[in-house]
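USER: Write out one fold?

ASSISTANT:
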Amino acid sequence: MALIDTAFGMLHVLFAGIWSGTTVFYAWRIHPLLSEGEIDATSAMSITTGLRWLTRIGAVVFVVTGGHMAGTGYGDGRLFSDPMGHAVLGMLTLWLVVTGLLEMAIGKMQPHLGDGRIQTAGRETETFIKVAATFSVVLLLLGGYLSQPLV
């Protein structure tokens, strides 16, 4: 059973790094290009669609791997009574918020991009993207905290 626990943990952390890193990179380098109109609508649509799919695939990966890790590592009510369990619940909440923010922002962006209103797409979603990126960093910090061995 230890092999599957290790594999799930590795997949969870790998995907978390890819998804969070992509979210931060998008907010830092790509979205400002969108807000300034320095990227064309076709490229922006392709990039945002990719981010949306990565987010949706991540939802499946995180539910399966995170659910397994929480179920095996925090039995006997530890999820609700232990500080590490509280961090897991906080992480779950933040993940839901980031996923929702990205879905909402991309959902608002794509119709504007389809109409060729590139700067409008960027400016109307800038706050959502920045908050999602900030919370992504917090998620990784919580992941680092949770990487401590369970006692």
Summary: The chain has a mean pLDDT of 94. Residues 74 and 81 are 10 Å apart (CA to CA). The chain has one domain: 1-147. Residues 1-147 form one domain.
